[in-house]
Amino acid sequence: MHGLIYYIDGATDTVDLERVTAKATLIDLSARVQVTQTYHNDSPTTLSCSYMFPVPARSAVCGFAMVKQDGTRVVGVVQEKEEARVTYDDAVQEGKLASLTEQASPDSFVCSVGNVLPKETVKIELAYVTELTEGDTSDSIRFHIPAIVGQRYGQQPLFGGAHIPSSSKTAFEFSASIEAASAITKVASPSHPVSLELGPDPSLPHAKDLPIANYARVSFSTSTTLEKDIVLTVHASGLDQPRCVAELHPTDKSAAVSLTLVPRFKLPEVEGQEYIFLVDRSGSMGAWSEGEGRIGMARKALVVLLRSLPSTGTSFNIASFGNNVESLWPSSQPYNQSTLDTATKHVDALGANLGGTETRKALDYVFQSRTKSKPTSVFVLTDGDAWDLDGVISSVKSAVASGTPDKPVRCFVLGIGNDASTAMCESIARHGGGIAQYVVDGDSFTGKTARLLKAARTPPIVNARLDFGLKEEEEHAEEDFELVEGAAPAYETSQDKEKAPTNLFDSSVDPLADTDSSASKPPPAPPVKPPPPPRIQQAPRDLSPLYPGSRLHAYAILKSAKDLPETVFLRGELASGQKLELAVPVVRSQLATVESSNFPPPIHTIAARKLIQDLEDGKHDLGVKDDLDLTKRTVEAAAVRLGKTYSLASSQTSFVAVDESEKDKPRKATQYQVIYDSPPHGGAVAFGGAAPAGPHMRRSRMATPMSTFAAIPPPPPAPASAVPVVFAPAPAQAQPRFGRMMKAVKSASPFGSSAPPPTDAMQAMSLTHAAPSAAGIDGGAPPLPAGGLFNQYAHSPEQPEPAATPTDPLDAIARHQSFDGSFNPAVLALCAPSASVDELVQKLPPSLQEKEGKEKLVATAVVLAYWKREMRDREEEWEAMAEKALAYLRSEAGDVAAEIVALFA
């Protein structure tokens, strides 16, 4: 996890993280998680600290509390973000123990804790709810707890956020209670060895009467720090079935519904499509404790994806990126055996050697170079370690808007690695009309790539929507509104009201004072009162694309539970006009646990978080014509209302907790510094020496002056033999790998104890070594060629690295498949090593034994039989390749293709 960080005497240090406890409750297709972190200030100084912690991007942070050493529990409340900062600043300045939790990105939060006394222990409790994604199969779900926030490349959006791993002595405990609506058939963890016990928790009400098969308990503990995400997969019958669960609010009159299903339908596939594979080759893609790293997983995924492409009408290309962008060809090429062989050699040589993570520039290049005359599907394989989320979203939205219903542009994402940014991956897929899948070390990945490809080959369903059975006039009856500015302006505007006469000699007025004073400035914009919520609030507003095998989640909050229907209809159309429909009965939520009373209602909470996400994405009806500023403030006010109503931390709301029990004995501060609005994106986010600063200080206070720091000169040019930079961006604001540089920072800090951190973490570190090499960590630029930078895209040179020998049998078999679906006879050494080719040919019908190409025909049939016999549990992974192989057999043998496969079963 992460340690509380503080800054003192020119160095960054951490408060000891003694223990982390995570408790999860998985209920059907959602989860509630409580994380407790125990910190101990072992220093002789009162400290104010901050730390960053991760949550999945689909989550809603809905609970926060601070527990003092004497057991006093200080529960956080939700306030508008600026109000919360002021509350925190005032409390810490007054010597109170206080804490503030703010959103840094959709999948990471920053918590500041002010005035921790010497030798004091403080517990931070965080609670969130999250929806569960599909697992490797349609009847499974995936749950994960992120262990770290990846060191992301570029400028962090809100405020500085360096974070380092906690002490290796930190104890970690995890437990999960699983409650399914049907019998659980399997629980597994690809990430950690876990203990499993079937049956309900004995503390549950009427535990003896509950069906044992529907419950399970999982636990895991270690005396050392958790270094990678905990991932659980749960298999249960019927998890892919459509369901719509209704939840009545315990104190309000509202109802919330959650609709989910794994679609099963078959539509005519998109023909004549372009497939572009965009591979992250930044330094972080080489990171993993064992094996080939993330780039190795990307190579394996590409081997399967390339062989699963349609044989006819397909064009494709492979681009890769880091600081620069490289592509296999200047533009996409027709899919045939020659181009497949060339692409395979290129894939085998891909390495994580392109420096930082310039995702937006890579996407811009791919979208600009795509073929405009046909549909385009872009597959992004990345760990998502970059902060430029807004820029990436802008690039994807522009590209999607440039497509047409019959020639759409879509983006699909495979998130790779234990700390893949769910915010980045989900955003690309959400705005790109695609889906995102994730793979961690030890996880099966080929099934997920097959699911991505299956989605890309399915035509997009437009205008997908939920129908709650209300008549249109009833549904919109309460939506008409008049936008009202909430508070009166600071000055009177009425011409009818008599004004008091102005004193011609006011002794409090200095006529020579600076005319640019606060008195002469226009009053601040008045607060906005957003319109009342509509009768039905659907989230997301635009339903995610429906793809076979990929789970759909949709939510709605109904203002009145009286409007709750018996059936909800899911409807949509194809671009051709064909209509689609599914009726889903509504059932009342019956699942409950003993912790329910301590949590907000989960369906309401997730629905509210999705509504806020729509507001952030600009998907709303709150626009005010010709007034962008009023629109912006109205949207923010609506997000604040949702955050306060449902106790949510978001981009517009924060949790703040202030201990009021020590009014007569404030905690004395011995040092004070200010964190400015644009602090370092790579340095510490918190200050020590009793510094009561939060992430942003909004009002003037006493502070030591900012020091001036000179920039580190650029590195000298590399020798002419260095790998050329194909596309060279402007010098990036690099965020260093903090763990590797911590020792250097402490021993050779160039700034004194009285100065706040510099504006760039790289400038702050007087490191004697040269800039990272091309194979280095994210943020390190590759060596520059002697001839300077080439500000253009170009064809990538052939890579000299040798291909790795595949260890996965499916990967090894896939490499023998040709573009038309047939298999090279050499594959028989893997699938039928004890039989000769001649012996196998003799099993064919007499009419085929002398056919030209009979060896390929036999090899193809043997592989299909082998997959069905030996790899039935991985069918989703080889399904697309098998379809091509069977199509080849039909073209060569006619209607008896299936019988030929049966000969080798």
Automatic annotation (TrEMBL):
Matching Gene3D superfamilies: von Willebrand factor, type A domain
All copies of domain VIT, residue ranges: 1-130
SMART domains registered for this protein in UniProt: VIT (SM00609), VWA (SM00327)
Family matches, as InterPro entries: VIT, VWF_A, vWFA_dom_sf
Classification via PROSITE patterns: VIT, VWFA
Annotated spans, Disordered: 491-544, 773-806
Compositionally skewed regions (Pro residues) per UniProt: 521-535
Domain (VWFA) ranges: 274-456
Protein name: von Willebrand factor type A domain-domain containing protein
Highest classification ranks of the organism: Eukaryota, Fungi, Dikarya, Basidiomycota, Pucciniomycotina
